[in-house]
TrEMBL record:
It comes from Sphingomonas hankookensis. This is Uncharacterized protein. InterPro entries: N-reg_PII/ATP_PRibTrfase_C.
Length: 127
């Protein structure tokens, strides 16, 4: 089954990252960006839809690094210096060809970064 895949990189606090890694699901509601992204997925008929399931998403945990240039207006970090931030990657799916423009716009509007990292691609799911 071919699907669109959407990955949204969300900056979080180190404390929130640790809580999520420990399996504390309630922590999802404690971050405005993360909870907004999840609300978009749960409120959509297409994003997060795999067969008879809705609201499907996965979380990946890690660190993200970048070096803002002089013309950047970073939320975190300073121009010319490497920044490393705790990050949660929210991954979800939509049927291939589904119109997810409204969902992507809502996610981008909720994201704090000057240039949000929102990846869209196509994958094949087994099953």
């Amino acid at each position: 089954m071919r699907m669109q895949v959407v990955r949204v990189h969300c900056p979080v606090s180190g404390n929130l990252l640790a809580r999520l890694q420990a399996g504390e699901a309630a922590a999802l509601a404690d971050d405005a960006v993360l909870s907004a992204v999840i609300a978009v997925i749960r409120g959509s008929d297409v994003l997060g839809a795999i067969g008879p399931y809705r609201g499907v998403f996965e979380l990946g945990f890690g660190l993200e690094s970048f070096v803002p240039q002089a013309e950047a207006v970073p939320t975190t970090g300073r121009a010319g210096e490497a920044a490393v931030v705790p990050t949660v990657v929210v991954k979800s799916y939509a049927p291939e060809g589904a119109d997810i423009a409204r969902e992507l716009a809502a996610i981008a509007a909720a994201h704090p970064w000057e240039i949000p990292v929102i990846e869209v691609g196509v994958v094949g799911l087994v099953g």
